# Entry
Amino acid sequence: MNDMISFVETCIQEGKFSRIREEIIELNVVDIAQLLDELEEEKTLIVFRLLPKEISVEVFSYMSTEQQQYIIESITDKEIQNIISNMFMDDTVDILEEMPANVVKKILRNVSEDRRKLINQFLRYPDYSAGSLMTIEYVDLKKEMTVEQAIQRIRSIGLDKETINICYVMDQNRKLEGVIPIRQLLLNDGSTRIGDIMETNFISIDTHTDQEEISNLFRKYDLLAMPVVDHENRLVGIITIDDIVDIIEQENTEDFQVMAAIQPSEEEYLKTRVTRLAKNRIVWLLILMISATFTGTIIKHYEEVLSSVVVLAAFIPMLMDSAGNAGSQSATMIIRGLALEEIHIRNIGMVIWKELRVGLMVGIILSAVNFLRVYWFEKTDIAVAITISISLFLTIVLAKVVGSSLPILAKKIKLDPAIMAAPMITTIVDALSLLAYFRIATWLIFK
# Structure
Protein backbone atom coordinates (compact mmCIF):
# COMPACT_ATOMS: atom_id res chain seq x y z
CA MET A 1 0.00 0.00 0.00
CA ASN A 2 2.88 2.38 0.80
CA ASP A 3 4.31 1.85 -2.70
CA MET A 4 0.93 2.66 -4.25
CA ILE A 5 0.61 5.83 -2.15
CA SER A 6 4.07 6.97 -3.29
CA PHE A 7 3.17 6.15 -6.89
CA VAL A 8 -0.09 8.16 -6.72
CA GLU A 9 1.58 11.16 -5.06
CA THR A 10 4.37 11.16 -7.66
CA CYS A 11 1.90 10.95 -10.56
CA ILE A 12 -0.15 13.83 -9.12
CA GLN A 13 2.98 16.00 -8.92
CA GLU A 14 3.85 15.11 -12.52
CA GLY A 15 0.26 15.51 -13.76
CA LYS A 16 -0.01 11.90 -14.95
CA PHE A 17 -3.68 11.49 -14.01
CA SER A 18 -4.52 8.90 -16.68
CA ARG A 19 -1.70 6.72 -15.32
CA ILE A 20 -3.26 6.88 -11.84
CA ARG A 21 -6.66 5.91 -13.22
CA GLU A 22 -5.20 2.92 -15.10
CA GLU A 23 -3.52 1.58 -11.98
CA ILE A 24 -6.13 2.09 -9.29
CA ILE A 25 -9.11 0.70 -11.21
CA GLU A 26 -7.29 -2.63 -11.14
CA LEU A 27 -7.47 -2.65 -7.34
CA ASN A 28 -10.26 -4.03 -5.19
CA VAL A 29 -12.73 -1.29 -4.14
CA VAL A 30 -11.85 -1.85 -0.46
CA ASP A 31 -8.16 -1.32 -1.22
CA ILE A 32 -8.97 1.82 -3.21
CA ALA A 33 -10.92 3.18 -0.22
CA GLN A 34 -8.00 2.44 2.08
CA LEU A 35 -5.66 4.18 -0.34
CA LEU A 36 -7.86 7.28 -0.41
CA ASP A 37 -8.09 7.32 3.40
CA GLU A 38 -4.32 7.46 3.67
CA LEU A 39 -3.85 10.31 1.16
CA GLU A 40 -4.01 13.98 2.04
CA GLU A 41 -7.51 15.41 1.60
CA GLU A 42 -6.77 17.42 -1.56
CA LYS A 43 -5.13 14.41 -3.23
CA THR A 44 -8.02 12.18 -2.09
CA LEU A 45 -10.48 14.36 -3.98
CA ILE A 46 -8.32 14.35 -7.13
CA VAL A 47 -8.05 10.55 -7.17
CA PHE A 48 -11.72 10.06 -6.28
CA ARG A 49 -12.80 12.13 -9.27
CA LEU A 50 -10.61 9.98 -11.53
CA LEU A 51 -12.63 6.88 -10.69
CA PRO A 52 -15.36 5.65 -13.06
CA LYS A 53 -18.85 6.44 -11.70
CA GLU A 54 -19.78 2.82 -11.01
CA ILE A 55 -16.56 2.24 -9.03
CA SER A 56 -16.64 5.56 -7.15
CA VAL A 57 -20.00 4.70 -5.57
CA GLU A 58 -18.68 1.43 -4.12
CA VAL A 59 -15.42 3.01 -3.01
CA PHE A 60 -17.24 5.83 -1.26
CA SER A 61 -19.23 3.37 0.91
CA TYR A 62 -15.98 1.88 2.26
CA MET A 63 -14.21 5.15 3.05
CA SER A 64 -13.82 6.59 6.55
CA THR A 65 -16.48 8.98 7.83
CA GLU A 66 -14.02 11.89 7.84
CA GLN A 67 -13.07 11.41 4.18
CA GLN A 68 -16.71 10.88 3.17
CA GLN A 69 -17.63 14.17 4.81
CA TYR A 70 -14.75 15.98 3.11
CA ILE A 71 -15.76 14.63 -0.31
CA ILE A 72 -19.45 15.52 0.15
CA GLU A 73 -18.49 19.04 1.17
CA SER A 74 -16.13 19.39 -1.81
CA ILE A 75 -17.97 17.90 -4.79
CA THR A 76 -20.84 19.31 -6.82
CA ASP A 77 -24.54 18.63 -6.29
CA LYS A 78 -24.62 16.52 -9.43
CA GLU A 79 -21.79 14.34 -8.17
CA ILE A 80 -23.54 13.91 -4.81
CA GLN A 81 -26.72 12.87 -6.61
CA ASN A 82 -24.81 10.25 -8.61
CA ILE A 83 -23.25 8.75 -5.47
CA ILE A 84 -26.31 8.67 -3.20
CA SER A 85 -28.74 7.55 -5.92
CA ASN A 86 -26.60 4.53 -6.75
CA MET A 87 -25.70 3.44 -3.23
CA PHE A 88 -27.52 0.66 -1.42
CA MET A 89 -30.02 2.03 1.06
CA ASP A 90 -28.38 0.56 4.18
CA ASP A 91 -25.02 2.12 3.23
CA THR A 92 -26.72 5.48 2.63
CA VAL A 93 -28.40 5.40 6.04
CA ASP A 94 -25.15 4.39 7.78
CA ILE A 95 -23.38 7.37 6.22
CA LEU A 96 -26.15 9.83 7.11
CA GLU A 97 -26.14 8.66 10.74
CA GLU A 98 -22.47 9.60 11.05
CA MET A 99 -22.62 12.98 9.30
CA PRO A 100 -23.23 16.41 10.88
CA ALA A 101 -26.58 18.09 10.21
CA ASN A 102 -25.32 20.46 7.50
CA VAL A 103 -23.87 17.58 5.46
CA VAL A 104 -27.06 15.53 5.87
CA LYS A 105 -29.12 18.46 4.54
CA LYS A 106 -26.81 18.76 1.54
CA ILE A 107 -27.19 15.05 0.77
CA LEU A 108 -30.99 14.97 1.17
CA ARG A 109 -31.30 18.06 -1.02
CA ASN A 110 -29.74 16.12 -3.89
CA VAL A 111 -31.83 12.93 -3.89
CA SER A 112 -35.22 12.26 -5.38
CA GLU A 113 -38.34 12.81 -3.28
CA ASP A 114 -39.14 9.07 -3.18
CA ARG A 115 -35.63 8.17 -2.03
CA ARG A 116 -35.66 10.99 0.52
CA LYS A 117 -38.89 9.60 2.00
CA LEU A 118 -37.32 6.15 2.23
CA ILE A 119 -34.20 7.54 3.90
CA ASN A 120 -36.26 9.47 6.44
CA GLN A 121 -38.25 6.33 7.17
CA PHE A 122 -35.06 4.38 7.87
CA LEU A 123 -33.69 7.14 10.08
CA ARG A 124 -36.78 6.94 12.30
CA TYR A 125 -35.99 3.37 13.35
CA PRO A 126 -34.25 3.01 16.75
CA ASP A 127 -30.45 2.92 16.67
CA TYR A 128 -28.97 -0.58 16.49
CA SER A 129 -32.32 -2.12 15.48
CA ALA A 130 -33.08 -4.30 12.46
CA GLY A 131 -34.90 -1.38 10.81
CA SER A 132 -31.81 0.81 10.93
CA LEU A 133 -29.60 -1.97 9.53
CA MET A 134 -31.73 -3.44 6.74
CA THR A 135 -31.64 -2.70 3.04
CA ILE A 136 -34.58 -2.66 0.62
CA GLU A 137 -32.53 -3.92 -2.33
CA TYR A 138 -33.73 -7.53 -2.50
CA VAL A 139 -35.29 -9.78 -5.16
CA ASP A 140 -39.02 -10.37 -4.65
CA LEU A 141 -40.95 -13.14 -6.41
CA LYS A 142 -44.51 -14.49 -6.57
CA LYS A 143 -45.34 -18.12 -5.83
CA GLU A 144 -47.36 -18.31 -9.06
CA MET A 145 -44.21 -17.69 -11.11
CA THR A 146 -42.34 -20.49 -12.81
CA VAL A 147 -38.62 -20.99 -12.30
CA GLU A 148 -37.97 -19.63 -15.78
CA GLN A 149 -39.97 -16.46 -15.05
CA ALA A 150 -38.14 -16.04 -11.73
CA ILE A 151 -34.74 -16.29 -13.40
CA GLN A 152 -35.79 -13.74 -16.01
CA ARG A 153 -36.85 -11.37 -13.22
CA ILE A 154 -33.50 -11.82 -11.46
CA ARG A 155 -31.69 -11.02 -14.68
CA SER A 156 -33.73 -7.86 -15.17
CA ILE A 157 -33.47 -6.41 -11.65
CA GLY A 158 -30.64 -8.34 -9.97
CA LEU A 159 -27.87 -5.92 -10.90
CA ASP A 160 -29.31 -3.26 -8.58
CA LYS A 161 -29.91 -5.62 -5.65
CA GLU A 162 -27.55 -6.13 -2.73
CA THR A 163 -27.80 -9.91 -3.02
CA ILE A 164 -29.51 -12.42 -5.29
CA ASN A 165 -28.41 -15.50 -3.35
CA ILE A 166 -31.75 -15.61 -1.56
CA CYS A 167 -35.05 -14.50 -3.13
CA TYR A 168 -38.21 -13.68 -1.19
CA VAL A 169 -41.69 -14.85 -2.13
CA MET A 170 -44.56 -12.48 -1.25
CA ASP A 171 -48.29 -12.34 -1.88
CA GLN A 172 -50.15 -9.36 -3.36
CA ASN A 173 -50.17 -7.66 0.08
CA ARG A 174 -46.38 -8.04 0.41
CA LYS A 175 -46.73 -10.62 3.17
CA LEU A 176 -43.73 -12.93 3.25
CA GLU A 177 -44.72 -16.47 2.29
CA GLY A 178 -41.38 -18.15 1.69
CA VAL A 179 -37.74 -17.87 0.64
CA ILE A 180 -35.88 -19.60 -2.14
CA PRO A 181 -32.09 -19.83 -2.70
CA ILE A 182 -30.92 -19.18 -6.23
CA ARG A 183 -29.38 -22.65 -6.38
CA GLN A 184 -32.91 -24.08 -6.11
CA LEU A 185 -33.91 -22.09 -9.16
CA LEU A 186 -30.87 -23.21 -11.12
CA LEU A 187 -31.33 -26.87 -10.23
CA ASN A 188 -35.07 -27.13 -11.00
CA ASP A 189 -36.94 -27.41 -14.27
CA GLY A 190 -37.98 -24.09 -15.84
CA SER A 191 -41.69 -24.96 -15.68
CA THR A 192 -41.69 -25.69 -11.93
CA ARG A 193 -43.83 -23.32 -9.83
CA ILE A 194 -42.01 -21.25 -7.21
CA GLY A 195 -44.73 -22.09 -4.67
CA ASP A 196 -43.87 -25.81 -4.99
CA ILE A 197 -40.16 -25.46 -4.18
CA MET A 198 -39.93 -22.42 -1.88
CA GLU A 199 -38.95 -22.88 1.77
CA THR A 200 -41.73 -21.92 4.16
CA ASN A 201 -39.81 -22.75 7.35
CA PHE A 202 -37.62 -19.65 7.44
CA ILE A 203 -36.23 -17.30 10.10
CA SER A 204 -37.39 -13.68 10.07
CA ILE A 205 -37.07 -10.76 12.47
CA ASP A 206 -39.06 -7.68 13.43
CA THR A 207 -37.89 -4.16 12.53
CA HIS A 208 -37.23 -3.40 16.22
CA THR A 209 -35.10 -6.48 16.95
CA ASP A 210 -31.79 -5.51 18.57
CA GLN A 211 -28.61 -5.98 16.54
CA GLU A 212 -27.01 -8.26 19.15
CA GLU A 213 -29.94 -10.67 18.91
CA ILE A 214 -29.73 -10.49 15.12
CA SER A 215 -26.05 -11.43 15.09
CA ASN A 216 -26.79 -14.37 17.42
CA LEU A 217 -29.46 -15.62 14.99
CA PHE A 218 -27.09 -15.34 12.02
CA ARG A 219 -24.46 -17.31 13.93
CA LYS A 220 -26.92 -19.93 15.20
CA TYR A 221 -28.53 -20.67 11.83
CA ASP A 222 -25.50 -19.99 9.55
CA LEU A 223 -27.45 -17.44 7.52
CA LEU A 224 -26.25 -15.26 4.63
CA ALA A 225 -29.31 -13.01 4.69
CA MET A 226 -32.41 -12.59 6.83
CA PRO A 227 -35.79 -11.01 6.01
CA VAL A 228 -37.11 -8.15 8.14
CA VAL A 229 -40.89 -7.94 8.53
CA ASP A 230 -43.31 -5.54 10.19
CA HIS A 231 -46.00 -6.45 12.76
CA GLU A 232 -48.26 -7.71 9.94
CA ASN A 233 -45.55 -9.99 8.52
CA ARG A 234 -45.04 -7.77 5.48
CA LEU A 235 -41.52 -7.81 4.09
CA VAL A 236 -39.87 -4.42 4.54
CA GLY A 237 -36.21 -5.27 4.00
CA ILE A 238 -33.37 -7.72 4.47
CA ILE A 239 -30.13 -7.81 6.46
CA THR A 240 -27.08 -9.37 4.82
CA ILE A 241 -24.06 -11.09 6.33
CA ASP A 242 -21.66 -8.23 5.52
CA ASP A 243 -23.64 -5.97 7.87
CA ILE A 244 -23.60 -8.64 10.57
CA VAL A 245 -19.82 -9.01 10.37
CA ASP A 246 -19.56 -5.28 11.10
CA ILE A 247 -22.00 -5.63 14.01
CA ILE A 248 -20.09 -8.57 15.53
CA GLU A 249 -16.87 -6.56 15.32
CA GLN A 250 -18.60 -3.56 16.89
CA GLU A 251 -20.14 -5.63 19.71
CA ASN A 252 -16.85 -7.40 20.44
CA THR A 253 -15.00 -4.08 20.53
CA GLU A 254 -17.59 -2.66 22.89
CA ASP A 255 -17.34 -5.70 25.19
CA PHE A 256 -13.54 -5.48 25.26
CA GLN A 257 -13.75 -1.81 26.19
CA VAL A 258 -16.31 -2.43 28.93
CA MET A 259 -14.26 -5.36 30.27
CA ALA A 260 -11.27 -3.05 30.47
CA ALA A 261 -13.35 -0.49 32.41
CA ILE A 262 -13.52 1.97 29.49
CA GLN A 263 -16.65 3.65 28.21
CA PRO A 264 -17.37 2.31 24.69
CA SER A 265 -16.38 4.45 21.72
CA GLU A 266 -16.79 3.74 18.01
CA GLU A 267 -13.89 5.98 17.00
CA GLU A 268 -10.56 4.45 15.98
CA TYR A 269 -7.85 4.79 18.62
CA LEU A 270 -5.45 6.89 16.53
CA LYS A 271 -8.29 9.19 15.43
CA THR A 272 -9.64 9.74 18.94
CA ARG A 273 -8.66 12.91 20.77
CA VAL A 274 -6.67 12.57 23.99
CA THR A 275 -9.40 14.40 25.92
CA ARG A 276 -11.99 11.91 24.63
CA LEU A 277 -9.80 8.95 25.64
CA ALA A 278 -9.35 10.41 29.11
CA LYS A 279 -13.08 11.06 29.43
CA ASN A 280 -13.88 7.47 28.42
CA ARG A 281 -11.57 6.08 31.10
CA ILE A 282 -11.87 8.44 34.05
CA VAL A 283 -15.43 7.49 35.06
CA TRP A 284 -14.66 3.83 35.68
CA LEU A 285 -11.29 4.63 37.23
CA LEU A 286 -13.07 6.90 39.72
CA ILE A 287 -15.64 4.21 40.49
CA LEU A 288 -12.95 1.56 40.98
CA MET A 289 -10.79 3.91 43.05
CA ILE A 290 -13.67 4.74 45.38
CA SER A 291 -14.77 1.10 45.64
CA ALA A 292 -11.16 0.11 46.42
CA THR A 293 -11.35 2.21 49.60
CA PHE A 294 -13.24 -0.72 51.13
CA THR A 295 -9.99 -2.66 50.93
CA GLY A 296 -8.18 0.11 52.78
CA THR A 297 -10.95 0.26 55.39
CA ILE A 298 -10.62 -3.47 56.06
CA ILE A 299 -6.84 -3.20 56.46
CA LYS A 300 -7.21 -0.21 58.76
CA HIS A 301 -9.81 -2.06 60.84
CA TYR A 302 -7.39 -4.94 61.41
CA GLU A 303 -4.34 -2.73 61.91
CA GLU A 304 -3.81 -4.22 65.38
CA VAL A 305 -3.60 -7.72 63.92
CA LEU A 306 -1.03 -6.61 61.35
CA SER A 307 1.10 -4.78 63.92
CA SER A 308 1.13 -7.85 66.17
CA VAL A 309 2.10 -10.30 63.40
CA VAL A 310 3.95 -8.19 60.84
CA VAL A 311 4.58 -11.15 58.54
CA LEU A 312 0.87 -11.28 57.68
CA ALA A 313 1.22 -8.07 55.66
CA ALA A 314 3.76 -9.69 53.34
CA PHE A 315 1.15 -12.14 52.02
CA ILE A 316 -1.63 -9.62 51.33
CA PRO A 317 -0.52 -8.97 47.68
CA MET A 318 -0.40 -12.72 46.99
CA LEU A 319 -3.93 -13.24 48.32
CA MET A 320 -5.35 -10.26 46.44
CA ASP A 321 -3.65 -11.22 43.16
CA SER A 322 -4.84 -14.83 43.47
CA ALA A 323 -8.37 -13.67 44.23
CA GLY A 324 -8.45 -11.27 41.27
CA ASN A 325 -7.00 -13.83 38.84
CA ALA A 326 -9.36 -16.60 39.94
CA GLY A 327 -12.40 -14.35 39.74
CA SER A 328 -11.40 -12.96 36.34
CA GLN A 329 -10.98 -16.48 34.93
CA SER A 330 -14.55 -17.41 35.87
CA ALA A 331 -16.03 -14.06 34.85
CA THR A 332 -14.38 -14.19 31.42
CA MET A 333 -15.74 -17.67 30.70
CA ILE A 334 -19.26 -16.76 31.83
CA ILE A 335 -19.31 -13.46 29.90
CA ARG A 336 -18.28 -15.32 26.75
CA GLY A 337 -20.92 -18.00 27.36
CA LEU A 338 -23.61 -15.36 27.81
CA ALA A 339 -22.52 -13.56 24.64
CA LEU A 340 -22.72 -16.77 22.60
CA GLU A 341 -25.97 -17.79 24.33
CA GLU A 342 -24.33 -20.98 25.61
CA ILE A 343 -25.32 -19.85 29.12
CA HIS A 344 -28.70 -18.39 30.11
CA ILE A 345 -29.95 -16.65 33.25
CA ARG A 346 -31.83 -19.81 34.25
CA ASN A 347 -28.49 -21.68 34.39
CA ILE A 348 -27.14 -19.64 37.31
CA GLY A 349 -27.54 -22.54 39.76
CA MET A 350 -25.65 -24.97 37.49
CA VAL A 351 -22.92 -22.39 36.85
CA ILE A 352 -22.36 -21.64 40.55
CA TRP A 353 -22.32 -25.35 41.41
CA LYS A 354 -19.76 -26.06 38.68
CA GLU A 355 -17.52 -23.12 39.61
CA LEU A 356 -17.80 -24.04 43.30
CA ARG A 357 -16.39 -27.49 42.53
CA VAL A 358 -13.68 -25.97 40.34
CA GLY A 359 -12.85 -23.56 43.15
CA LEU A 360 -12.62 -26.40 45.70
CA MET A 361 -10.24 -28.40 43.50
CA VAL A 362 -8.05 -25.45 42.57
CA GLY A 363 -8.15 -24.03 46.10
CA ILE A 364 -6.97 -27.29 47.69
CA ILE A 365 -4.00 -27.57 45.32
CA LEU A 366 -2.95 -23.93 45.65
CA SER A 367 -3.31 -23.84 49.43
CA ALA A 368 -1.34 -27.10 49.82
CA VAL A 369 1.50 -25.80 47.65
CA ASN A 370 1.40 -22.48 49.47
CA PHE A 371 1.55 -24.18 52.90
CA LEU A 372 4.69 -26.11 51.89
CA ARG A 373 6.29 -22.94 50.52
CA VAL A 374 5.50 -20.79 53.56
CA TYR A 375 6.13 -23.35 56.31
CA TRP A 376 9.00 -25.47 54.96
CA PHE A 377 10.93 -23.07 52.75
CA GLU A 378 10.28 -19.71 54.41
CA LYS A 379 10.28 -21.18 57.96
CA THR A 380 7.15 -19.26 58.96
CA ASP A 381 5.28 -20.08 62.17
CA ILE A 382 2.86 -22.95 61.57
CA ALA A 383 -0.15 -20.95 62.79
CA VAL A 384 0.66 -18.23 60.27
CA ALA A 385 1.20 -20.80 57.48
CA ILE A 386 -2.15 -22.44 58.25
CA THR A 387 -3.87 -19.03 58.37
CA ILE A 388 -2.46 -18.04 54.98
CA SER A 389 -3.29 -21.38 53.35
CA ILE A 390 -6.87 -21.55 54.66
CA SER A 391 -7.38 -17.93 53.62
CA LEU A 392 -6.07 -18.71 50.14
CA PHE A 393 -8.41 -21.70 49.86
CA LEU A 394 -11.46 -19.68 50.87
CA THR A 395 -10.37 -16.79 48.65
CA ILE A 396 -10.18 -18.99 45.56
CA VAL A 397 -13.58 -20.57 46.24
CA LEU A 398 -15.22 -17.19 46.89
CA ALA A 399 -13.60 -15.65 43.82
CA LYS A 400 -14.84 -18.47 41.57
CA VAL A 401 -18.39 -18.22 42.87
CA VAL A 402 -18.52 -14.42 42.76
CA GLY A 403 -16.81 -14.24 39.36
CA SER A 404 -19.29 -16.67 37.81
CA SER A 405 -22.48 -15.32 39.37
CA LEU A 406 -22.10 -11.54 39.00
CA PRO A 407 -22.15 -11.46 35.14
CA ILE A 408 -25.37 -13.52 35.17
CA LEU A 409 -26.93 -11.25 37.79
CA ALA A 410 -25.93 -8.24 35.67
CA LYS A 411 -27.71 -9.82 32.70
CA LYS A 412 -30.75 -10.43 34.90
CA ILE A 413 -31.09 -6.73 35.74
CA LYS A 414 -30.55 -5.70 32.07
CA LEU A 415 -26.91 -4.59 32.44
CA ASP A 416 -24.06 -5.56 30.14
CA PRO A 417 -22.40 -8.66 31.69
CA ALA A 418 -19.04 -7.31 30.49
CA ILE A 419 -19.30 -4.68 33.24
CA MET A 420 -18.55 -7.48 35.71
CA ALA A 421 -15.17 -8.20 34.13
CA ALA A 422 -11.66 -8.14 35.56
CA PRO A 423 -11.55 -4.64 37.15
CA MET A 424 -14.89 -4.89 38.96
CA ILE A 425 -14.50 -8.55 39.96
CA THR A 426 -10.98 -7.87 41.23
CA THR A 427 -12.18 -4.99 43.40
CA ILE A 428 -14.96 -7.10 44.94
CA VAL A 429 -12.98 -10.27 45.59
CA ASP A 430 -10.01 -8.30 46.94
CA ALA A 431 -12.23 -6.99 49.74
CA LEU A 432 -13.67 -10.46 50.39
CA SER A 433 -10.25 -12.11 50.45
CA LEU A 434 -8.88 -9.59 52.96
CA LEU A 435 -11.94 -9.94 55.14
CA ALA A 436 -11.55 -13.73 55.19
CA TYR A 437 -7.79 -13.41 55.80
CA PHE A 438 -8.07 -11.20 58.84
CA ARG A 439 -11.02 -13.07 60.32
CA ILE A 440 -9.15 -16.38 60.11
CA ALA A 441 -5.97 -14.76 61.48
CA THR A 442 -7.93 -13.36 64.42
CA TRP A 443 -9.48 -16.76 65.11
CA LEU A 444 -6.35 -18.95 64.72
CA ILE A 445 -3.54 -16.70 65.93
CA PHE A 446 -5.15 -14.46 68.53
CA LYS A 447 -7.84 -16.71 69.90
Summary: The domain at 140-240 is CATH 3.10.580.10 (CBS-domain). The mean pLDDT is 85. The radius of gyration is 30 Å. The longest helix spans residues 382-412.
